[in-house]
Amino acid sequence: MTPTDPIANLATLIRCPSVTPAEGGALSALEAMLAPLGFACERVTATEPGTPDIENLYARLGTQGPHLMFAGHTDVVPVGDEAAWTHGPFSAEIADGQMYGRGAVDMKGGIACFAAAVARYIEKHGPPKGSISFLITGDEEGPAINGTTKLLEWAAAKGERWDACVVGEPTNPDALGDMIKIGRRGSLSGTITVQGTQGHAAYPHLADSPVRGILQLTQALMDPPFDTGTHDFQPSNLEVTTIDVGNPAVNVIPARATARFNIRFNDTWSAESLKAEIIARLDRAAADGNLRPGRSPVAYDLVWSERPSHVFLTRNNGLISSLSGAISAVTGREPKLSTTGGTSDARFIKDYCPVVEFGLVGQTMHMVDERVAIADLETLTAIYETFLERWFGNAAA
Questions:
Q1: Exposed/middle/buried for residue 74 (C-beta within 10 Å: 0-12, 13-18, 19+)
Q2: How many CB atoms lie within 10 A of CB 288?
Q3: Residues 183-237: tens digit of each pLDDT
Q4: Span between the terminal Cα atoms of the chain, in Å
Q5: Which residues are tagged catalytic?
Q6: Closest to 14 in 3D by CA, of 109, 125, 144
Q7: Using one digit for the tens of pLDDT, what is the confidence trace for 13-47?
């Protein structure tokens, strides 16, 4: 049996409880689908001190170029309150035209459909005049340390090269064909700490409140705006995500305050230039004594997150036009080319080849009763199959 049925493929994958970092049988199930099609499958376990070991899968059909990669992940987020699910989170039950299960749209559904599309393509045309690979991680929903980055490094070290990649994340907001992601904003995070002097709230002259300082600094980060956006990207946006003082008493001025922030930034900035701008804003705010009359400037410490995500934009017309044309041919819709949303593993793949993202409708991802319309599985499979025909046809032209 070859995996031409995306519904059966997805049911098999959902029934594997692959909550990060557990493999849960999902990679083995996918390997069993791909091996009969002629894929050479290799399992790669990546390690890093202080993090769980992660199993990953690399499978390749063909030895020549052009080489198309499909990338994704079989790991899923926890189910939450299992009793709140209408159908078991790992049961793959079908009701009212929907298949229920954790990972149905994020993103076992995309993997199931691409495997079915490849199988159907081979049935009609034989193996492609080139190569197809699956680069599948078990660490996308986790810290993303032992997943796609290390699998790419491993594959590149053994000589693998790719001409284009599709990531099967759920990119469509409302209906299949709405949106292709052709880039992503960058992401940068940091933690600010202000030290004060603890004291009684009734005797503020004997204390020094770090809360006043942390508010002064965080306000400077949020206003004014960093930019007004670019042709391809939304305006950069910084959010202060938490302010903590660890103070259970209402009549005590705390000794220390911390704030964490995250900024999603467009191609006006690099991570380095953005860091310089943030430090300049903090230094100016720290020297301003408006909130701290008669006191020394605010003293702060700033610690950056270890790995910022860099902004990128894919301009490969062959890849984008092949996918857009396939979507239009199957659905009649003209997809929007977007850079909205959070980060994905495409941020790692962009260093190796042009990459876009297209998958299912994402409305129920990470929710209780995550589910996908059965009709959408067939439609996405048809889009992927048409894309394969167009991409290999264009590459050979």
A1: buried
A2: 14
A3: 999 999 999 999 999 999 999 989 989 999 999 999 999 999 999 999 999 999 9
A4: 33
A5: 75, 140
A6: 109
A7: 999 999 999 999 999 999 999 999 999 999 999 99
Q: Band of the pLDDT at 2, cuts 50, 70, 90?
A: confident
- Contacts for 15 with CB less than 8 Å, ≥ 6 apart: 90, 91, 92, 101
